[in-house]
């Protein structure tokens, strides 16, 4: 059997058409370019779903991984050891956050950060009701799946967590359903898998007010929007609305698995008793992953990549125009090209891959194509990708 056949037989598949049926076998990646075993190059326009914000194999990140791996890679991570990589990164990250977000619990990824935050909310408030929003995506583990706002992806796995209430995103009138029985509200300030749907400023402000009124924890899921993706280091900065708990992952580790839920020390201390070890994992805060994450933060700061996110947004808006595009929803380097047709979208995406452009669709918006390049992409690389997309649209438009 060739590698494709071995891949399909031994690597678990969750889709019967991995990557649109195109066989891609990547040999190496650098910056914004992926190169397959045959030497064909691809421009990466999705960053591994907003993971490779500083590009693939950034030398600063690679160096940090190499140096830390030569010292130690894994110790116990429940607080028994005072680990310098964890402490230094936690302090550095806290310096970029509001004073109430000063205590960091490291996880291995986004779903686990969601799980920890939900447990924290129940432990702090003594309540169990969780409110989430339509078309929200927070992960695929059971708790995270319970607060997903799309029934298609949930129904086959019920029963899920009880006490979950789904409200309409951006509908301020429904926020009256937040009451003194609610433990937490979890929300993406900019919805990712819904196809880049930004929260309205008034909506998020009212949400903060309602949570304050009823002593409810407000959880912002910035797993996809964090680390410069939207033109600010974190998306909540667009709104001047500060959550009680912040969730991070994806772009955090430069390609290594790491996430976090962040709150005040007072809130987080509730996990230390009744019971002791109120939340534990084996690999959260792994020294190599934390070292990589610290390097990512340094790169974003030193290379002004937060500013670059807004530049990418403006460049795409100026250059990507076509009659087949019904709407371009983009915040920073997080965008959705809306075609209004699933058929058109999938034809465009398959053609893009054949022409050396890596792109994708959205779980809850299959009519739109994802555009989320690494923040280190140059204007020349971006223009090359846009020119190819426009040529593809010119061909496909003849059939529609």
Low-confidence stretches: none
Please indicate the count of domains: 2
| Share of residues in strands | 15-25%
Count of beta strands: 17
Put simply, the count of helices is 12
Order of helices and strands: HEEEHHHEHEHEEEEHEEEHHHEEHEEEH
Structural class: alpha/beta
Strand order of the largest sheet: 4-12-11-10-7-5-6
Principal-axis shape equals globular
Radius of gyration from CA coordinates: 21 Å
Query: What is the CATH topology classification name of the largest domain?
Result: Aspartate Aminotransferase, domain 2
Query: CATH superfamily of the largest domain, called what?
Result: Type I PLP-dependent aspartate aminotransferase-like (Major domain)
pLDDT averaged residue by residue:
95
Characterize the main sheet: 7 strands, mixed
CATH class of the largest domain: Alpha Beta
Give a structural overview.
The protein starts with a helix and ends with a helix. The protein is of the alpha/beta class. Helix 4 runs parallel beside helix 9 (287-302), helix 10 runs parallel beside helix 12 (379-396) and helix 11 crosses helix 12. The chain has a 7-stranded mixed beta sheet with strand order 4-12-11-10-7-5-6, sandwiched between helices. A 4-stranded mixed beta sheet has the order 1-2-3-15. The mean pLDDT is 95. It has helices at 3-10, 47-50, 59-69, 84-94, 110-125, 142-146, 201-213, 265-268, 287-302, 305-319, 342-354, 379-396, and strands spanning 26-30, 33-36, 41-44, 103-107, 129-133, 164-167, 182-187, 190-191, 197-198, 217-221, 245-248, 259-263, 327-331, 334-338, 357-358, 360-362, 365-371. It is built from 12 helices and 17 strands. The chain has 2 domains: 3-54 and 304-399, Aspartate Aminotransferase, domain 1 (Alpha-Beta Complex); 59-302, Type I PLP-dependent aspartate aminotransferase-like (Major domain) (Aspartate Aminotransferase, domain 2).
